[in-house]
Amino acid sequence: MKQHEKTLKDDPRYRIANREALIGVVLVIINFILWYGFAYGFGSKPVDEYSYVFGLPAWFFYSCILGTVIVLTLVVFAVVFLFKEVPFDEEDEQ
Amino acid sequence: MNWEVVIPLIIFLVIIFLIGFYASTHLKGTSNFLQEYFLGSRELGGFILAMTMISTYGSASSFIGGPGVAYTMGLGWVLLSMTQLATGYFVLSVLGKKFAIMARKIRAVTLIDFLKERYQSKSVVILSALSIIIFLFSAMAAQWVGGARLIESLTGLSYTGALFIFAVSVLVYVIIGGFRAVAITDTVQGIVMFSGTLVILIGTIIAGGGVENIITTLSTENPDLISPFGADRSLTPLYVSSFWILVGVGVVGLPQVAVRAMSYKSSKGMHRALIIGTVVVGVIMLGMHLTGVFARAVLPGIEVGDTVMPRIALEVLPSWLAGIVLAAPMAAIMSTVDSLLLLVSSAIVKDVYLNYVKPDASDQTIKRFSVSVTAVLGVLVFAMAVNPPDLLIWLNLFSFGGLEAAFIWPVVMGLYWKQGNASGAMASILVGVGSYIGFNTFMPNAFGMHTVVLPVLLSFLSYVSVSLMTVRKHAEVQQEVVLRLWKA
Fold first, then answer.
1. Residue A29: pLDDT above 70?
2. Across the interface, do B282 and A72 touch by the CB < 8 Å criterion?
3. Residue B480: exposure state from Cβ atoms within 10 A (0-12, 13-18, ≥19)
4. How far is Cα B117 from Cα B483, in angstroms, rounded to an integer?
5. Of B218, B292, B298, B391, which is most buried, counting CB atoms within 10 Å of its CB?
6. What value of ipTM does the predicted structure carry?
7. Which member of B101, B107, B271 has the closest CB to residue A79?
8. DSSP run (H or E) holding B392
9. Whether residue B3 has pLDDT greater than 90
10. Residue of chain A with shortest Cα separation from B41
11. Chain A window 52-91: which residues touch B at a Cβ cutoff of 8 Å?
12. How far is it, in rounded angstroms, from Cα B298 to Cα B200?
């Protein structure tokens, strides 16, 4: 970091913005792990050894349906508890 | 002509027109034409923001092409399409507040406005405007062809006649209503897409005698249809995973999506959009592709993938309901095309004309010029789509991945890395687009991954290394940029 940058502080709203961007990245990583783990964890064996949930192959149910529901829940959780509201309109738009 | 199918489609078009007229009243009353026409005066609420993002992104391929491939490949293709779930929350959380705050600090109306202020470089602006104009123009033309084919197949009109109806419908509401009309019609179109998806999925499950029955039928025909590897076992885990870059996180770099991340009113709206967007994209992607797979058990032996959706809708639903459901792909195509039309217009009017040709144009001139550019573009696309030239088809192949490779790092790193500079951005755009076209031509799907992956990596490396190498050259400009964009 260069010295002269420290003379003026960064916009304090950016700390919140940076944190939320990181949360987005973490969500994607969790999403990917669930999606990949369930699909290839349950789905890599021969098809006649598959087990089924609600008529769907287990890998598909867990990866695409349960995984989606979990990610949705996490998104709601993140938005409600971790995201902070910041004002946008302190400056005149005209 | 099957009137029971056609009437819901006509009603749908009439509603879209009415919204265009409603939005045009805002356009007449506005004191800042550019902000209203190209950005809806940054007034989008959460629901509309979510819907316009999803429906701009969801195009003909989500409703026609994708389910067609799922029909042939089986559940593995549904797995692949679920990589798109990330677009629902990733774009808004990553660009999110930072982009909204910075865009307001510099009063940016387009993505290129942002790049211009961030990098202070004429060549970055011209190069990005050119990429947007060329790539999105061809993407748009390809969608028009899809829209016209759909009308043609549903109504029995000639291709040119269908194209004419499609072109006039879109042009009228975009020209009279601008971004606000586009966003509100996108919302209606999004609702049509969402409910159409649910109806057709349920209809198909019932026609197939329940999920269990359908899965048994499929696995008897070919067990690999219900494996994650695709009917011909060609979907490797690495290949499928690489779609996380193309349609998951890479979407951040698409200008038509990114521009929406600066159009919203408040952080509250953005929070709501995050949740709504994720739900809607999850349901649409899962529902449409699953329908494509299930359709195989109901209507086996369809040869042309693109006809799966229209045929299954007409097969399993009463005609009037099929008409409503088939308005969904129509809506998907229109909502993509309208945004692209406006974006290409904004690149020409705002980024080229106002920046470099006539910076002191009066409001009246800007108004007349914007509207005529949109109209002329519409006519040009129409002419192209009547008889698509080979060049256009070739360019369209690159539009999605090419734009991602070009813009993802100049935008994302520009927001989060103060050291990123104009030389880095130039290098990133050139390397991204160049290597994308190169890999596509000489080494498609290199190392078993989708072609977009390596160009995205290469453009990242160029952005960082060139920025670091040219720190001195840009020192003064960078100091000013940091002061304007970062400081409170």
1. yes
2. yes
3. exposed
4. 12
5. B292
6. 0.88
7. B271
8. helix B390-416
9. no
10. A93
11. 52, 54-57, 59-60, 63-65, 67-68, 71-72, 75-76, 79, 83-89, 91
12. 13
Residue A50 token pair: 């598959």
CA distance B435 to B415: 24
Distance of CA A14 to CAs A76, B95, B480, Å? 22, 12, 18
Classify the phi-psi angles of B209: left when phi > 0, otherwise alpha if psi is within -120 to 50, otherwise beta. Answer: left
Residue A56's DSSP bridge partners are A53
Higher per-residue confidence, B45 vs A77: A77
Average pLDDT over residues B171-184: 86
Q: Give the separation between CA B300 and CA B290, rounded to whole angstroms.
A: 15
- Tell me how long chain B is: 488
pLDDT average, residue stretch B314-326: 87
pLDDT, residue A3, reads 47
**How far A49 CA lies from chain B's nearest CA (Å)?**
11
pTM: 0.88
Report the alpha-carbon distance of residue A12 to residue B461 in Å, rounded.
Answer: 30
Distance CA B192, CA B197 (A): 8
CA A87, B415, A85: angle at the middle one, nearest 5?
A: 20
Is the distance from CB of A71 to CB of A34 less than 8 angstroms? yes
Cβ neighbours of A21 in B, within 8 Å: 93-94, 96, 98, 416
The pLDDT, as a whole number, for residue A90 is 56
Picking from B273, B297, B228, B218, the residue whose alpha carbon sits closest to that of residue A67 is: B228
Query: What's the rounded mean pLDDT across residues A51-72?
Result: 95
Report DSSP letters for A3-47, one per residue: GGGGGSPBPTHHHHHHHHHHHHHHHHHHHHHHHHHHHHHHHSS-G
The per-residue pLDDT for range B326-363, each reduced to its tens digit, is 888 888 888 888 888 888 898 888 888 888 888 888 88
Residue B47 predicted with pLDDT over 70: yes
- Taking contacts as CB-CB distances below 8 angstroms, the residues of chain A near B281 are none
DSSP letter (8 states) at residue B448: G
Burial A26-62 (b: 16+ CB within 10 A, else e): ebbeebbebbbebbbebbeeeeeebeeeeebbbbbbb
Choices 1.20.1730.10, 3.40.190.10, 3.40.50.1110, 3.30.70.600: CATH for B3-388: 1.20.1730.10
Report pLDDT for A10: 86
Chosen for mutation from A45, A60, A63 (greatest number of chain B CBs closer than 10 Å) is A60
In this predicted structure, the answer to whether residue A94 has a pLDDT above a threshold of 50 is no
Contacts of B424 (CB under 8 A, 6+ apart): B413, B462, B463, B464, B465, B466, B467, B468, B470
Asked if residues B86 and A31 have their Cβ atoms less than 8 Å apart, the reply is yes
pLDDT recorded at residue B24: 84
d(CA B16, CA B7): 14
- Please check the confidence at residue A33 and state whether its pLDDT lies above 70: yes
CB contact under 8 A, B101 and A12: no
* Average pLDDT estimate for A20-37: 95
- For chain A, the residue count is 94
Domain positions in chain B are 3-388
Q: 10 Å Cβ neighbour count for B107? A: 15
